[in-house]
Amino acid sequence: MKRRMHMEAYSSRELLCIPGKNKSYAIETAYVTELCCQIQLSRIPCMPEYYAGVCSYKGNIIPVIKLHSEEDPGEDSLLLAVSCGKYQLGILFTGDPYILPAGTAETVESPADMGDSGIWAGKEICRHEKEILFVIDMEKTVEGLIICQ
């Protein structure tokens, strides 16, 4: 059975892209609050592996999730502060993020089950030049974190 690929311009929103070793992620910029460096993390014992800890962000204590669960926070780690509804969280990652302007990525039709990406719920898969981007569905991801997968 052949899998049909349908592509269309992803034109609704800008994406903040985070290239990774095995998988590159993208988040709609509407959810992004701030990109922070030199953050002070406090670890919490007995939490799942994907939690890096908590940090103080503008007077609030927010949970910090590792983008790639195998990465350990280092001096070169960045924190992407995101808001989804009334919830805030930090996404910890290493690498050089970049903004992909609206209309420059193509949506690739993917199977109903886009595969396991850990805690990150997928919204869609996009292609920009030769890079494949896994666009995170922030609403479903936050909902999954609240329910404690």
TrEMBL record:
Pfam family, one: CheW
SUPFAM superfamilies listed in its UniProt record: CheW-like (SSF50341)
Domain CheW-like: 21-69
Top-level taxon: Bacteria
GO process terms (BP): chemotaxis; signal transduction
InterPro entries, per the entry: CheW-like_dom_sf, CheW-lke_dom
Name of the protein this chain belongs to: CheW-like domain-containing protein
Organism of origin: Eisenbergiella massiliensis
